[in-house]
Amino acid sequence: MILVVEDDPQVARLIALVLQRNGHQSEVVADGASALAKARELRPQIIFADLTIDGIGGEQLCSMIKAAPETRDIPYIVLSGDRDIAEKARVCGADDYMGKPFEFEDLIGLVRKYARAES
User: Fold this and answer.
1) Looking at the domain assignment, is residue 37 inside a domain?
2) pLDDT tens digits, one per residue of 1-56
3) CATH code where residue 84 lies
4) Could you list the residue range(s) of the whole structural domain that residue 60 is in?
5) Which one of 11, 14, 87, 89 is most buried, counting C-beta atoms within 10 A?
6) Percent with pLDDT over 70 in the chain
C-alpha cells in the first residue's frame, strides 16, 4: 500500500493509476491531517506527498511523520513543483524528492527503490 498525499484530484488520479498499472495499491488523501491519520493506521510502504496541501502543510507533515517512532521508518518522498524542493525535502527529513511534472518511469523507479516486500 502506497499513500499518496495530493490535493490536485487530476494529479492524484494519475499517480494512483500509474501505481495500479504497475501492480501497487494506493490510498489517496488530499490534506495533511488525513495523511497523518492514514500513515498511522495503514503503515504504508511509501508516502508520496505534495508540499502544498491543506491543513498540515507538506513540510510539517514530513517532519511529524519522521519524528514519530511508529512512522519514522516509512520512506517519505516529496512531490513538488517548488524550485527549492531539494532543500525543503532535506530539512524536513524526507528520504527523497521528485519534481513536478515528472515521468511515470521516475515514479516507478522510486517505488522500486523504496518499497518493502508486502508482508
Assistant:
1) yes
2) 999 999 999 999 999 999 999 999 999 999 999 999 999 999 999 999 999 999 99
3) 3.40.50.2300
4) 2-108
5) 89
6) 97
Find the angle CA(101)-CA(50)-CA(33) to the nearest 5 degrees.
Answer: 160
Nearest to residue 56, comparing CAs of 41, 39, 69, 75? 39
Secondary structure of 25-85 in HEC code, one letter for each residue: CEEEECEHHHHHHHHHHHCCCEEEEECCCECCCHHHHHHHHHHCCCCCCCCEEEEECCCCH
Three-state DSSP class for residue 101: coil
- Count CA atoms closer than 13 A to 17's CA, side-chain side: 7
Residues in CB range of 38: below 8 A, 6 or more apart: 3, 27, 29, 44
In the block, residue with C-alpha cell 498525499: 5
